[in-house]
């Protein structure tokens, strides 16, 4: 199995995720960046505090009042009759130890991160092996055959928020599998869609990612000579052709 | 007195401390389903919310829809307001701004904007914020604070906040290298925050 780490220049942008606090505070992130930054915010008290302060400052910009028509008031007060206010968020549970540990090694630096990433891969692999390793009689699924093929090539994309996407392609099986870890959910009304490109340059839809942070998906279509795999954000249900720039792409040359 | 250096003030987003506390209380009561409190909140904030909506989406009918959406969302999520994290004014305007930006970025608006992208770039009035902000003491403080920003910081913030553009689009509009507009926006907001004396 070969590992290809495709952390490239466009990915470098994510490396300075803290620097997005200002753009986030004034809603100047696209849907995907926003989802990523919000997942970063959950683990970064510094950014949360900064965003709060910058929003306070931004509110000062909105100082030109315009009186709305009177009927709007009536419409709104009538409208709330049909809407139940959300319950308050209950006090967060006490920090569990794994959380503290995670935060610590996130700030300790690259070598540990790499080690942790390797452990994650190992765990993911183990989890995949377990269901069928105990029972040799059960035939392998197509996904399992790809993941365990002798010629399986693995292509990794790391994102700064800790999420990863990995494409595993087996030419002999003619199929590819994508594995995601800690992926931010697709924006509301959108799906992550998978794509495969053949040597003639045609890009074919290869399925949708399920709505979960850690997913393993067998790409639809023939990957025996695919040259490229990508993930884009598309309207719910997917598109016949990509309509946005890929959030992750994998050049599948061995 | 040097108008360029307004006295720092802890008052949140232009409201006096008393008014700010009152707004926060109205939000808390709204969260409990108190319609009268919500009506008072509407009366206190509607013009400011609508002013922001008009500024961002421009089209009057769409601005009204945005204002309506924003207030319904404020009613629905009032329990999420946390006075320890910021003022009620800022919380309300954050919701309104998000609704306005969502509106201008909707698919139809996006295609319309593409064709006018460059015209808009030409017609950006760099002093629009300062010109419009005239009457209140609060507006004078903002105007003064904006003079503390570099031109690029101010333009980047205005394009993002009032134009509804992403930082990547802002970079293109201002001919900045990709990835630097977000830094200008952040630096400018930090200076604004520190000049006005809000946040921390
Ligand atoms: Zn951060």
Short description:
Chain A is an alpha+beta fold.
What do these coordinates show?
The complex is a heterodimer of chains A (254) and B (200). Chain A is α+β, with helices and mostly antiparallel strands and 254 residues long. Chain A has two domains: 3-129, no CATH class; 142-251, Sandwich (Immunoglobulin-like), CATH 2.60.40. In chain A, 36% of the residues lie in helices and 21% in strands. Chain A has eight helices and nine strands. In chain A, the strands form two sheets. In chain A, strands 1-2-3-4-7 form a five-stranded mixed β-sheet, with helices on one face. In chain A, a hairpin with a 4-residue loop joins strand 3 and strand 4. The radius of gyration of chain A is 22 Å and the shape is elongated. Residues 5-15, 96-113 and 118-137 of chain A have low confidence and may be disordered. By secondary structure, chain B is mostly helical. Chain B folds into two domains: 8-122, Rna Polymerase Sigma Factor, Chain: A, CATH 1.10.1740; 128-200, Arc Repressor Mutant, subunit A, CATH 1.10.10. Chain B is built from ten helices and no strands. In chain B, helix 2 runs antiparallel to helix 3 (60-77), helix 3 crosses helix 4 (88-105) and helix 7 packs across helix 10 (181-196). The complex binds zinc ion (ZN). The site of zinc ion has 5 residues of chain A, from helix 4. Chain A: Keywords: Cell membrane, Membrane, Transcription, Transcription regulation, Transmembrane, Transmembrane helix.
Q: How helix-rich are the residues of chain B, as a percent range?
A: over 70%
Q: What is the CATH third-level topology name of the largest domain in chain B?
A: Rna Polymerase Sigma Factor, Chain: A
- Superfamily at the CATH H level of the largest domain in chain B? RNA polymerase sigma factor, region 2, helix turn helix motif
Q: So what's the oligomer here?
A: heterodimer
Ions, cofactors and other ligands present here are: zinc ion
Counted by DSSP, the helix tally of chain B is: 10
Number of E strands of chain A: 9
Which stretches of chain B of 5+ consecutive residues score pLDDT under 50?
1-14, 116-134
Named CATH architecture of the largest domain in chain B? Orthogonal Bundle
Distance between the termini of chain B: 25 Å
In CATH's first tier, which class of the largest domain in chain B applies? Mainly Alpha
Shape of chain B: globular
Q: Helix-strand pattern of chain B, N to C? A: HHHHHHHHHH
Q: Largest sheet of chain B at a glance?
A: none
Give the fraction of residues assigned to helices of chain A.
25-40%
Which protein chains make the most extensive interface, counting residues with beta carbons within 8 Å of the other chain's beta carbons?
A: A-B, 48 and 79 residues
What separation lies between the terminal Cα atoms of chain A? 10 Å
Poorly predicted runs of chain A are: 5-15, 96-113, 118-137
The major beta sheet of chain A can be summarized as: 5 strands, mixed
Average residue pLDDT of chain A: 76
Region (Disordered) (chain B): 106-131
Organism (chain B): Nocardioides antri
Family (chain B): Belongs to the sigma-70 factor family. ECF subfamily.
Domain RNA polymerase sigma factor 70 region 4 type (chain B): 140-192
């Amino acid at each position: 199995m070969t590992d290809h780490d495709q952390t490239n220049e466009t990915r470098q942008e994510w490396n300075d995720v803290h620097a997005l606090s200002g753009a986030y505070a004034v809603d100047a992130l696209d849907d995907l960046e926003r989802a990523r930054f919000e997942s970063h915010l959950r683990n970064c008290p510094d950014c949360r505090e900064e965003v709060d302060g910058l929003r306070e400052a931004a509110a000062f910009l909105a100082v030109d009042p315009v009186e709305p028509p009177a009927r709007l008031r009536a419409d709104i007060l009538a409208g709330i009759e049909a809407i139940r206010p959300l319950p308050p968020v209950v006090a967060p549970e006490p920090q569990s130890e794994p959380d503290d540990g995670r935060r610590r090694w996130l700030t300790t630096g690259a070598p540990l991160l790499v080690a942790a990433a390797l452990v994650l891969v190992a765990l993911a692999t183990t989890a995949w092996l377990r269901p069928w390793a105990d029972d040799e009689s059960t035939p392998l699924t197509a996904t399992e055959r790809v993941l365990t093929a002798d010629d399986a090539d693995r292509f990794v994309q790391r994102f700064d928020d800790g999420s990863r996407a990995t494409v595993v392609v087996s030419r002999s099986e003619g199929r590819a599998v994508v594995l995601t870890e800690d992926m931010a959910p697709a924006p509301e009304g959108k799906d992550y869609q998978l794509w495969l490109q053949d040597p003639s340059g045609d890009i074919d839809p290869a399925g949708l990612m399920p709505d979960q942070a850690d997913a393993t998906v067998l790409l639809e279509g023939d990957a025996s000579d695919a040259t490229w795999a990508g993930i884009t954000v598309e309207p719910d249900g997917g598109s016949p052709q990509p309509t946005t720039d890929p959030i992750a792409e994998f050049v599948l040359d061995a | 007195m040097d108008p360029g250096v307004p006295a720092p003030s802890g008052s949140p987003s232009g409201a006096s401390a008393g008014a700010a506390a009152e707004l926060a209380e109205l939000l808390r009561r709204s969260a409990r389903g108190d319609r009268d409190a919500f009506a008072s909140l509407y009366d206190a904030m509607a013009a400011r919310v609508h002013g922001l909506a008009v500024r961002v989406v421009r089209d009057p009918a769409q601005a009204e829809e945005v204002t309506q959406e924003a207030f319904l969302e404020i009613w629905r999520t009032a329990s999420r307001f946390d006075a320890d994290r910021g003022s009620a004014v800022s919380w309300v305007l954050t919701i309104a701004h998000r609704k306005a930006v969502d509106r201008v970025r909707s698919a139809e608006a996006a295609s319309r904007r593409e064709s006018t992208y460059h015209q808009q770039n030409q017609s950006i009035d760099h002093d629009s914020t300062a010109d419009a902000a005239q009457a209140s003491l609060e507006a004078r403080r903002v105007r003064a604070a904006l003079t503390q920003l570099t031109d690029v910081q101010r333009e980047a913030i205005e394009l993002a906040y009032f134009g509804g553009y992403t930082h990547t689009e802002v970079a293109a509009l201002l001919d900045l290298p990709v990835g630097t507009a977000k830094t200008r926006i952040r630096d400018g907001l930090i200076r604004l925050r520190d000049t006005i004396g809000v946040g921390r």
